[in-house]
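TICKET #2291
ISSUE: user wants both folds in one file
ATTACHMENT 1:
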Amino acid sequence: MERLARRLAWGAAGALGLGLAGWVAWQSSGTDLTGLAPQRVVSVDPATRDSLLNAVDQYLETDPERSRGMLDARPSMESQMFCHEELVEVRQSGPDRLVGVVAHCQELAPSGGDLVAGTGYVAPMLLTLEPRGGRFAVREFRQAGDGAAYTDSVREMFSAEGAPRAFDVLATGSRMEERIRSAARTAFGLSPEAEVVRE
């Protein structure tokens, strides 16, 4: 069963890569990728941007429904979920901020001098963040959920300009992977050259 779980997790990653490659070819056919979300897109200063992304990152890495992976079944492996988010847009809804991101998350654990990779995913997300005590906290979460290309749900989740930007980030998501692995090597006290192996 554990071997099957590993195959499914990595198979899903492979399917996502094929789906994104297909989307890049498919978008040239003239399909409408304009977002439909009505809220106003707002500019945020660097400090607010960092505060919003820190709240999103902490939520994805620690929320029990988002941070558990297949390595959790092996308590001897001190696995953690590591995420990196590319900000697509911020919209205003009353006092709340609607934060659209493309997130790349990977479950990683140290093993000797290597990193062991478990569950991982790349997905567009929309999170509702409310101001709380001078910071932001995630109140609602939505992840795109209609296949590898995500077209319909991304159009619903993002603004007219944001949806095409989300697809552009998806198409270059591999750049996020090494940032996650570098953060994991630092967190686990491993060498910057530590290899990543599949469990």
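ATTACHMENT 2:
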Amino acid sequence: MNLLAKFFSPKTAITSATIRAEIARAESEIAAHRAQQEGVLAGIAVMNDSQHAQADADAAAIKRAIMRLEARANHLTVELPNVIAAEEAAAKVAADDSLRQRAEAARKANTKEAAKLLAEYATAAARVAEVIANLEALDIETTAVNAALRSNPVVEPVVAYDAIHRRSPDRPAGERRAVRKCWVYRYPGSPRDTDTAKFQYEAPHEVVREAGIGRDGKAIPVPAVQHDYYGRVLTITPTLEDREVVIERVSFRPGRSEEPLSSVRLPPAFSGEDHIWPRG
């Protein structure tokens, strides 16, 4: 590990990440040196003796640099598993310590803090039980009053608090209308008497279709239609008009009732105590 420390500056934390980065840097430099080495000896065929000697010296220097970098990368590669193992062991120690602290905090909370919370629950639940008991008494009285009113209807029956306060209103059925551009086809009425020389027509009827709107904001044209009218073919050309049409229909939906308060269960705060609600 002493040799490993010499590969990095004193302030650099030696981790698996920094080792991997250093291996990658060394390998990159090795590749660059090898390319440089090939370039130094590329023109050896036309070198004189002095140039050849210089090229050999440069190539030797580059080779030594490559050897140092390879030794560095090899040593880092050998040390990397040990560093990873040390990091994993340190992480396990830290995780174990964190879990011990959480367990101690949970133990303390269950022993002391929970007792305070349960005492608060008992006080609040007792108040809730009192409210439910008063509402239950009101329910009983309302039922008795309405029973008496059935035999002596001096006033309207009393509506129970559940219907007043604990039920949302019904949603009635209905429809929403708006004025839209429409194509209107007008058809002639049917003749009342085909035996007379002059037909007397019923009122004409219309077919209204909401117009599609193009990107230019204008109604998209629609073709005329052919209508067989007692052996005569009539061409019905639609006209564009503003008409009120149904754009949404809403179905009936009954109001939602909340769960009855009689279904509430309030167990005791501490072992051995009576149920808070329903009362025993």
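RESOLUTION: both attachments delivered.
EXTRA DETAIL ON ATTACHMENT 2: The mean pLDDT is 90.
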